[in-house]
Structure to design on (678 residues):
């Protein structure tokens, strides 16, 4: 069994790495010492050959569904990026732990992606693309939890050969879904993180702090109890359930090209790679590893992407660079909408920046600091928080260095190792990623801010997360946010970023729109409410959400937007009334969960241009009746083909349509011309 890796990497045969003479590579003296390396190599080498496993293993099908293999390769590449860059895997594991090998279809009960860790631990992941629902009837979620519960009960086994029990101090059982999965899995992931921070005596349900989290947790517990009963013939005990939940991790990862947050993070980890598109290279290796049902060692992965071993001059990805050397998108600034430029007009990557009131406050906090400063910009999505922070550090601290940690584990290591030197900016975009369920991070930052050296910690956060992290716990609930609350309320300066341009800000905007067509387009679209930045920066994200709806809420939102667009194409003038959209939108969603645009062939069999999954006659008539009260200026019924109209079904439907339209157009005494919309 040999894995054909790219030309830059030697083939890997599933055994620990060796030199060309066949001798074992000496243990690397890193965190944990050579004995740790020996344990991991022994763990992998002692496993039965995964290619010999029985083809009927029920876990083999999860990632091989439509599109699943590609997502499995992306998850492999994600962990491989951690391995080659020497980045801690996180997940509440010891920050000193590193990844030694990554594999696919490894023969474990949970085998889509396996990650072997220093210290002999494992991360076993189920990769489920597009998990749309978090409920007790969701087959993909139930299937994933069945396998995780089986691993918990049976222990780490390969092809039914036992290795050892699952260890909550060094192992993790993970469900990973893609960016188009339901956002409810983000909620569930937060609860799982909080559960790991609870003392063993705490009640499981106290980890959920709001109604949304309580609903997610209750759903999870029902599925776990069902899976446990099916696997063990009984429900989990009071000791087993909390232990399983401390092992469990739920992640929704976004690997969309260029725009995906986790694709960008992987790019940062791989920025020292010398081959083009290193993430894609690692995905290719993941595909081959899945076919071979093998493991690939860290050194083999490093060679494939051309990254040096740390002992030969490599470095962790979170290295400080001059502030002016950082790219805006690398720091999380959203890409702007596109717009037609005038002939000969060059459009830079970033739009012209319009200073607002909060920028004045930022300048006061960041101008020539002589000691430690922490600033948190608080605002809703796409209001300009990250761009304001980016402009502030470039304007006020151009000669400083900037350090951007990847996650909580990386941040903790950088602070503890002394990497945050004087005149360093510590960049915490989306600060909740670093602070949620991470009291050690809050303590480390408070110690940093208690010093005398000039350092700046600058972050962004949504108001809802600020409230979550700074609110006192309910009666008798565990206070998991004490240190974070003290950090944000007493050590940090809060700068609020408003949603809209008003007053003086609008005047500034008016002077800037002539220099950038994108800014002009956004200002025109936001003329009524002043939410210019949401149009400018949120537009691309909304288009992506429209194209890839993640859950029922997104699907209905797409239906509303599609109905509005169709109405616009048919001549309706803006604004389109809420009552019309409320009546029309349900007809754009079929029971299978997809959106539709036109009548179906089975209910209207003789049109000129039939469309799949369109409106039924009943749905169409309901939409037309919902238009009652609107003053229609004209109607038309087309595309009835009598030669193909069996039993005159379509002709009868067309007659009903004409009747409903004529009824809607008939004036009624209580109606007025003010209700004209179309």
């Amino acid at each position: 069994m040999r894995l054909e890796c790219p030309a830059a990497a030697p083939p890997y045969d599933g055994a620990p790495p060796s030199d060309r003479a066949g001798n074992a590579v000496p243990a690397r003296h890193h965190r944990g010492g050579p004995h740790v390396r020996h344990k991991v190599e022994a763990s992998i080498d002692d496993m039965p050959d995964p290619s010999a496993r029985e083809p009927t293993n029920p876990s083999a099908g999860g990632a091989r569904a439509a599109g699943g293999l590609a997502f499995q390769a992306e998850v492999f590449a994600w962990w491989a990026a951690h391995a080659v860059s020497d980045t801690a895997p996180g997940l509440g594991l010891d920050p000193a732990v590193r990844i030694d090998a990554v594999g696919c279809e490894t023969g474990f009960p949970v085998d889509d992606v396996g990650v072997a860790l220093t210290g002999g631990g494992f991360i076993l992941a189920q990769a489920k693309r597009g998990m749309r629902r978090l409920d007790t009837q969701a087959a993909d979620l139930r299937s994933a939890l069945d396998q995780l519960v089986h691993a918990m009960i049976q222990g780490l086994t390969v092809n039914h050969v036992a290795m050892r029990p699952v260890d909550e101090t060094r192992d993790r059982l993970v469900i990973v879904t893609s960016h188009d999965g339901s956002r409810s899995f983000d909620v569930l992931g937060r609860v799982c993180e909080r559960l790991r921070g609870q003392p063993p005596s705490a009640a499981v349900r106290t980890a959920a702090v709001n109604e949304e989290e309580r609903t997610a947790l209750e759903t999870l517990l029902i599925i776990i109890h069902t899976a446990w009963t099916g696997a063990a013939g009984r429900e989990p005990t009071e000791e087993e359930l909390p232990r399983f939940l401390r092992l469990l991790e739920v992640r929704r990862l976004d690997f969309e090209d260029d725009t995906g947050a986790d694709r960008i993070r992987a790019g940062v980890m791989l920025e020292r790679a010398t081959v083009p598109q290193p993430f894609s290279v690692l995905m290719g290796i993941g595909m081959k590893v899945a076919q071979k049902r093998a493991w690939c060692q860290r050194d083999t992965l490093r060679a494939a992407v051309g990254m040096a071993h740390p002992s030969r001059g490599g470095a962790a990805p979170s290295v400080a660079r001059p502030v002016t050397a950082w790219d805006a998108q690398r720091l999380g600034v959203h890409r702007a909408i596109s717009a037609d430029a005038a002939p000969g007009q060059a459009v830079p990557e970033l739009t012209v920046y319009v200073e607002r009131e909060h920028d004045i406050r930022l300048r006061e906090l960041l101008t020539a600091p002589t000691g430690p400063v922490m600033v948190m910009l608080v605002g809703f999505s796409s209001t300009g928080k990250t761009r304001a922070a980016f402009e502030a550090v470039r304007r006020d601290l151009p000669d400083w260095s900037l350090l951007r940690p990847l996650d909580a584990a990386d941040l903790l290591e950088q602070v503890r190792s002394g990497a945050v030197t004087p005149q360093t900016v510590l960049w915490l975009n989306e600060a909740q990623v670093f602070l949620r369920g991470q009291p050690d991070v809050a303590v480390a930052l408070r110690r940093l801010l208690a010093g005398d050296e000039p350092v700046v910690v600058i972050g962004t956060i949504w108001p809802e997360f600020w409230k979550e992290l700074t609110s006192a716990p309910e009666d008798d609930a565990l206070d998991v946010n004490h240190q974070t609350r003290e950090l944000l309320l007493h050590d940090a300066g809060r700068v609020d970023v408003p949603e809209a341009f008003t007053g003086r800000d609008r005047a500034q905007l008016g002077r800037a729109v002539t220099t950038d067509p994108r800014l002009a387009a956004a200002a025109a679209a936001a003329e009524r409410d002043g939410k210019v930045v949401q149009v400018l920066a949120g537009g691309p994200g909304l288009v992506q959400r429209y194209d890839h709806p993640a859950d029922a809420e997104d699907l209905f939102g797409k239906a509303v937007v599609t109905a509005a667009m169709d109405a616009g194409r048919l001549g309706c003038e803006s604004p389109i009334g809420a009552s019309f959209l409320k009546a029309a939108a349900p007809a754009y969603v079929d029971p299978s969960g997809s959106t539709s645009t036109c009548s179906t062939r089975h209910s209207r069999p003789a049109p000129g241009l039939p469309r799949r999954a369109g409106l039924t006659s009943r749905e169409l008539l309901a939409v037309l009746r919902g238009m009652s009260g609107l003053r229609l200026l004209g109607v038309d019924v087309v595309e009835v083909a009598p030669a193909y109209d069996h039993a005159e079904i379509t002709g009868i439907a067309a007659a009903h349509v004409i009747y409903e339209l004529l009824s809607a157009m008939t004036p009624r005494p209580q109606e007025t011309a003010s209700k004209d919309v179309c």
User: Anything to note?
Assistant: Residues 34-308 form one domain. Residues 211-232 form the longest helix (22 residues).
